[in-house]
């Protein structure tokens, strides 16, 4: 997977070193024979036993990097609303970018392993996971799924290293949950054969101010069909492309967010995805990212649990008792630990089905909706354990609460996922 991971994870899948999943021998799992001596509140349903040794090694390496290298920076980054692009280069050096993609310098690991990486990153901060998810799932994943062989060779190797950064342009100022009504257009260049001119605006675009490559979805003026275009900033003439930052956010302050403004920006025809049209393209990319979010938010919730438990054991009130002794506090912790355990199991199951080609979009909607909702709800409840101290950003719980509100909202707000599930259950379309 990478120089660092190879040393610590000798069985890690390297690009080309092992056959595709369908050709592999039966999956072997991590320690399954050891007797249960006591309840483990950090892994209450022993989800680790469902992982392969390879996946455990990947998870441990990702967790170590995140806790040792990312966690010490996050408080200052959040306060200053600053994102350091070198983080993506560090992730690239470890092989964490585009980890589920096969070839092009990517690791080609399982969907579950990719989810464990997002869980480790989001345990530190949802903003850091957002930056990684956009690079890996939305842009690299989109190019890998739908790009021509030439586009893959041109962009994926450098993106896997984190030396070329990407952003995904779908959401518009007037069209969030209704991307089919997008206003961004692509029309044939009137004088330059083989080029399109893109015009329109995208907003709430993670990484756009620092991105080198923009995956922009636009409607062909000729047909009204939605197509994907790889827009290379380096090739855009002055005045045709701007990516201003959106500042003063209440959440995801440790990531960078911006807009994309296109004004007859010329893009060569070969940079258009050749064989996908309509919303299938962007929704395929979004489903991969939504899976990562479903797994990642469990990392954020688990960090909230750890912080709240530690605080409750150390904070003494009423006759010198730790507040963890009291029933109301214990119920809050019990509820959160239960939801986290269920959420992790669901994410692992869907990841297995995804690799077997049996995961449906509704399954992704279910775990994205449920895990984001429960992570946000429990984080807000656990915040109460800190009392007034929760107002201080040094305790970290308020940062997770603010971030998790955003994760519940983007890439399909929870109510939208409810309607997706409702349509699948009843056969009736509720989108009007």
Automatic annotation (TrEMBL):
Query: Care to name a GO molecular-function term for this sequence?
Result: fatty-acyl-CoA binding
Acyl-CoA oxidase/dehydrogenase middle domain boundaries: 167-265
Q: Where in the cell is it found?
A: Mitochondrion matrix
Q: Which domain of life is it from?
A: Eukaryota
What broad class of enzyme is this?
A: oxidoreductase
Asked if Oxidoreductase is a keyword of the record, the answer is yes
> What residues does the Acyl-CoA dehydrogenase/oxidase N-terminal domain cover?
53-162
Where the record annotates domain Acyl-CoA dehydrogenase/oxidase C-terminal, the positions are: 278-425
Q: Does the keyword Mitochondrion apply?
A: yes
Q: Which UniProt keywords apply?
A: FAD, Flavoprotein, Mitochondrion, Oxidoreductase, Transit peptide
Cofactor(s), names only, from the UniProt record: FAD
Belongs to which family? Belongs to the acyl-CoA dehydrogenase family.
The identity of this protein, by name, is glutaryl-CoA dehydrogenase (ETF)
Q: Give the source species.
A: Apodospora peruviana
